[in-house]
Amino acid sequence: MELYDVMRSTPAVREFTDDPFPDDVLERILDNARFSPTGGNRQGVRVIVLRDPETRSALADLGLTAARRYTAQLANGESPWNPLQPTGLDPATIAAAEPAAQMSAPFREAPVVLAILLNLAVVAATDQDLDRIAVVPGASVYPFVWNVLLAARNEGYGGVLTTMIAAEEPRAKDILGVPDTFAIAALVPLGKPLRQVTKLRRRPVSEFVTSDRFDGAPFGG
Fold first, then answer.
1. Predicted structure pTM score
2. Which keywords are on file for this protein (predicted)?
3. Residue 136 pLDDT > 80, yes or no?
């Protein structure tokens, strides 16, 4: 596929066929994805290929902690997990929420799940002293994740970047044997899409790009 076609037609895929995901295809995807940029070219990304059903089911169960809060906050008219708008819900209400099955099904049903980790010992978090949530370290791992999804699309497969596991990271790291210096940046289920969406909806450039200042004139037509 042409690069721009891949960029414009890579959706979040959460439902998969029963087609297998061959190791040689996965290796080709990872072999190309590894050329993503990282801070200082330190290449602190690690990947665990998860095919074992029990391991994947255990991680799916752990992801329900964040999914319950997400579901409860949506029902309460809140912006889920927003760092600037803390939830007003009590723990009991959150624990009683019932997430949609599709929030955990991909980890159980996809032919393969990637656990994508970042070595914090090699990250330059230049925003660590700011009075806000750090976002800069993500620049050393999420370009790789997106490269994986673009490469998967190019091969006729698909997947989705998920981060719900972060709410239970210590327990997830125990399951996977991850050292303390690593963070779990994402779980990415991959497989052959049950439906291939090729027309994505996104805001036009002029709605989110401005010239010279945040409140500058819209850029683009």
1. 0.94
2. Flavoprotein, FMN, Oxidoreductase
3. yes
